[in-house]
Amino acid sequence: MAAQPHGLIATFDTVPDVYHAAEKVRDAGYKFWDCITPLPIHGLDKAMGVKRSSVPKFSLAGGIIGFATGMSMIWFMNAFDYPLVVGGKPYFSPMFAFPVSYELTILICAFATIGGMFFLNRLPMHYHPVLKHDNIHRAMDDRFFIVIEARDPKFDGARTRALLEKAGGKDIKELEA
Amino acid sequence: MAAAAPSAGHAGPAILNEVKPAELPRAVLVENNRSFTWITDKICGIIEGKTPTWWWVCFIVACFVASFTVAGLTYLVATGVGVWGHANPVNWAWDIVNFVFWIGIGHAGTLISAILCLLRQKWRTSINRAAEAMTIFAVVCAGIFPVFHVGRVWFAWYLFPIPNSNYIWQNFRSPLEWDVFAVSTYGTVSVLFWYVGLIPDLATLRDRFLASGNKLRSWIYGLFAMGWRGSNRHWSNYEMAYLILAGISTPLVLSVHTIVSFDFAVSLIPGWHTTIFPPYFVAGAIFSGFGMVLTLMLPLRGIYKLEDLITQYHIDCMCKITLATGTMVGYAYAMEFFIAWYSANPYEGFAFINRAFGPYAWAYWIMITCNVITPQFFWFKKVRQNTALVWVLSIFVNVGMWFERFVIIATSLARDFLPSSWGYYSPSIVEIFTFFGTFGVFSVLFLLFIRFLPIMPMAELKAVTPQADVHSGHDHHSS
Fold it and tell me: CATH code for B51-162+174-462?
C-alpha cells in the first residue's frame, strides 16, 4: 500500500468562502485541520474554533525574568560585588535601578514573545507537506486553502472530500506526506 | 440569526438592537479597489524587476557621502577625540546632538508600528514597514556617535556589564548607563519587531522566486521566512505576538527618549535641569521622525507609483501628526521660558534669555522658524495636497529638530555659572565630515532595503482591503 497521504487540500477563492467553509469543517468535528491564508483573517479563529493564543504566557514570564534580572544584576554589581561610593548615593536603590530594569523587562519580554510564537507554531519548519502543493504559491498571494489531515480520527477519504466539496472547495487534492 | 430573541450571550438593553447608527464615511486605505494579486505584484515587482538606473546613481552617491563618516572616524581613531571641536566648557557637542537627532528620527517608526497599531489606525499599514526600516537605520547612525565619542573606541565594550580585568562594574546610578540599555534595547526590539512583520512577506517572495525558477533567491528568502506557510493556527499566535510587541514597544519608545532626556535633565546645568524634558523630547522625537517619514515616503510614492497605497489620506494623517507634535514642541519652548521666569532662579532665567539673544541666537531662531512656524502650514488642506510643498516642509522639520538639540546642548554649556569659564563652540571639519557622512550611511541602508525587501507589509495591506472582510459581498450575517 502506498504511504498514507498527509491529507486533503481544497482551494477557495474569497475570504467569505473560506470563512464559511471553516465553520462547516469545525462543526463536522475535525481536530487536525487548518486554513492556509495569505493574510490574517479577522474572525477566522472563531470560525475554526481555535483557542486564544498562549503567547502572552511566554511574554509575562519573559517580562518578569527581565525585571528580576535587572534589579538583581544592579544590586549585585553596585552593592555586593564591588560597592563603590559615587556622589554620596546609596549602593542600591530600586529608584536608580528602575530604568535599566525596565528596559530589560521589555528586552527579555520581546525575545520571549517571539520565541514563544516560534515555539507554539513549531517554526522554523522548512519542510512541510502543504508546501508541496502545486498551487501553494497562491496561498501567499490571493488564494485560500483548507487542509484536513489524514491523522484526524474523523478523516475518511471519500466523506472528507464530500464535506470539502459541499463547503465550496475547488480543486480538491490529496497531499502526499 | 441573533435578531429575534435576546439571547443570554448578548447583554444590554433590547433597544440597542433597533438602533441603527448613521453610516460614517471611512477613508479608503487602498484606492481603486485593488485586488490581492495587484498588491502582491506591485510590491514584489519592485524587488523582482531590474535594478533601476536611478537606484544605482543614488547608491553610488550615498556610498560616496558615507565615505565621509568613514574618513572622519578613521582620522578620529588614529588621532584622538581632540580632533573634534569640543573644549572646556563645551564638552558635549555635535556628538550628542547628532546622537539625539538620529535617535529621535527613529521614534516615528516605532510610533507608527506600535502606537498606531494599538490605536487601530489602519492607515499605518502602508507606511509602517519603511518607517520601521528608517528606525533601525537611524539607530545605527545614532549609535556611531556615543561609541566613538568615548575616544578609545576599542574599549566601548566597557559600557556593557561584562566582567573585565579591573573587576569594577558600571555605575548604574548614572543616566548615561541607563542610556546604554535604553538604546541597545530599542535597537534590538526594533529589529525583532521589523523581522516578525517581514516573515509572511518573505514567504511570499520565497514562493514567487521558486515559481519563477530563481532557486538561490528563493532559498535565501525562504531561510528567513522560517518555513512560514500561512497557516491560520500560526496566524493566531503571530497576531498575538505582534500585538504584544506593539504593546511593549509603546512604553519602550516613550522610555527611550525619556532616558535620553535624563542625560540632561538629571544634571544641574541651567536650561537642562527641567522636568519638562522627558515629554518634550518625546514629542520632538515624533515630530522629527514624521518629518523624516514624509521626506522618504513621498519620493518613493512618486517613483514606484504607489498612489493607490499611500493615498492623500495617508499624507493628511502624517501632516496632521507633524502639526500636532510640532505645536507641542512650540508649547514646550514657551513653557520653558515661563518656568524660567516663574522659578525666579537667576541662572535659569539667564540661560533662556541667552538662548534667544546670546551668541547662539542664530541657531535658536532657525529652530523656532523650522519647528514652530513650519508645521503650522499643515493646517491648510491646500498645503497638505501639494506633495512637493509637503516634502520641502518636511526637510525644514528635519533641520529644525537638529538645531533644537544643538541649541539645548551648546547654549547651556557655553554659558554656565561662572563667566570666567564661558566659551563658544564651533565644530571642526572632522565633526562636520562625520555627521554629513551619516546621511550617506542611512541612505545606503535604506536603498538596500527598498531594493531587497518588500517596502510595504503585503499581508497587512491585504487585511485592510474590503475583500478581507469575512462578510464582504454578503448582506446577511450568519453566526
Answer: 1.20.1630.10
Sequence spans of domains, chain A: 7-52+126-175, 55-121
What is the predicted ipTM?
A: 0.92
Cα angle value B153/B159/B163 (rounded, 5°): 110
Q: Which of B188, B222, B233 sits opposite A50 (nearest CB)?
A: B233
CA B241 to mean position of chain CA atoms:
21
Q: Which residue of A has its CA nearest to B241?
A: A113
The reply to whether omega before B89 is within 30° of 0 (cis) is yes
How many CB pairs below 8 Å do chains A and B form together? 221
How far CA B191 is from CA of A31, A106, B37, in Å, comes to 36, 14, 28
Q: Quick one: DSSP state of residue B151?
A: S
Of A77, A99, A109, the CB nearest to B259: A99
Tens of pLDDT along chain B (479 residues) come to 344 444 444 566 777 777 777 777 777 778 777 888 888 888 898 898 899 999 999 999 999 999 999 999 999 999 988 898 888 888 888 889 999 999 988 888 888 888 888 888 888 888 889 999 999 999 999 999 999 988 889 988 888 998 888 888 989 999 999 999 999 999 999 999 999 999 999 999 998 898 888 899 999 999 999 989 888 999 999 999 999 999 999 999 889 989 989 988 988 888 888 888 888 888 998 899 899 999 999 999 998 888 888 888 889 999 999 999 999 999 999 999 999 999 898 888 998 999 999 899 999 999 999 999 999 999 999 999 999 999 999 999 999 999 999 999 999 888 888 888 888 888 999 999 999 999 999 999 999 999 999 999 998 888 888 888 887 654 444 43
Residues 109 through 168 of chain A touching chain B, CB cutoff 8 Å? 109-111, 113-114, 116-118, 120-121, 123-128, 130-131, 136-137, 139-142
Interface test with B, best of A54, A120, A121, A145 (most B CBs within 10 A): A121
> What is the total residue count of chain A?
177
Q: Kindly report the CATH number that applies to the domain delimited by A7-52+126-175.
A: 3.30.70
What pTM was computed for the model? 0.89
